[in-house]
Known about the structure:
By secondary structure, the chain is of the alpha+beta class. Helix content is about 30%, strand content about 15%. It is built from 4 helices and 7 strands; from the N terminus they run ααββββββαβα. The strands form 2 sheets. The chain has a 5-stranded antiparallel sheet with strand order 3-6-5-4-7. Strand 4 and strand 5 (about 115-125) form a beta hairpin. Helix 2 packs antiparallel against helix 4. Residues about 235-245 and about 245-263 have low confidence and may be disordered.
Amino acid sequence: xxxxxxxxxxxxxxxxxxxxxxxxxxxxxxxxxxxxxxxxxxxxxxxxxxxxxxxxxxxxxxxxxxxxxxxxxxxxxxxxxxxxxxxxxxxxxxxxxxxxxxxxxxxxxxxxxxxxxxxxxxxxxxxxxxxxxxxxxxxxxxxxxxxxxxxxxxxxxxxxxxxxxxxxxxxxxxxxxxxxxxxxxxxxxxxxxxxxxxxxxxxxxxxxxxxxxxxxxxxxxxxxxxxxxxxxxxxxxxxxxxxxxxxxxxxxxxxxxxxxxxx
Length: 263
C-alpha cells in the first residue's frame, strides 16, 4: 500500500508538472527562464568588472591607482575629449545688444599667440548672468545697492579642423571678437538640437553578449534534447549474435514486427 501511495503521488506530481508546462517550448519553460536570468546576471556582473570609457579622450583628474579597491558610484577619473571643445565667453550686457546666434567669431589663445586665429560661431547664450547662479547670489533688496555691469556667458562653437591642428586644453584664456554685422536674426535659439552631441554604445554590447550566451546555451540543449528524444523513439535493433551463422537463433531487444533475415 505504501508503494501504491507513493506511485499515485508521483503520478499526480507528473500530471501537475505536465499541466504546468503543457504547450511550452524549451525556451519558454519556467525553470529555463529562471536559469537564463541567473546566467544573464552572472555574465553582466563579470562584464562590469571592466569599465570601458564612453568616449575617446585624455585622462584628467585621476582619483584611483592600480590595484585599489573601489565601491560602486566612486568617481575614478575624468576623460576629456579634446577633439570637440567650445569657448564660454563672458560678455558685458551692452555688448549683447546686436549679438545673435550663428554670427562668426574670431578667437585667439594666449597659448599660441595672435598669429594663430581660430574661427567659430555663436552657438547660444546663457539663461542668466554669472552672478545669478553663483553660490551666494547678490542681495539687491537693501537700500545701498550699487549697480554693477553684469556678464552673460556666450557659447562659441569652434571649427573641429582648426582644433585638431592646434589642440586646446580646458581652462585656457582666449580673446573673442564677434562680427555683429547683420544682426537681424533671433537672439535666442528657437529649437533644441535634434541629436545629442555625444552618444556611446559601449555599454550595449554587454547586454547583447549576455543574450547571445543564453541563446547559445538554449540551442545546445535543444539539440541534445532532440537527439535524446530520437534515441528514445528508435527501437534498439541490436542482434544478440554479432556474426550470425546457421542454426543460431536471433532475437531483437525491442520486439520489432518483422523478423531479421540472415543471408
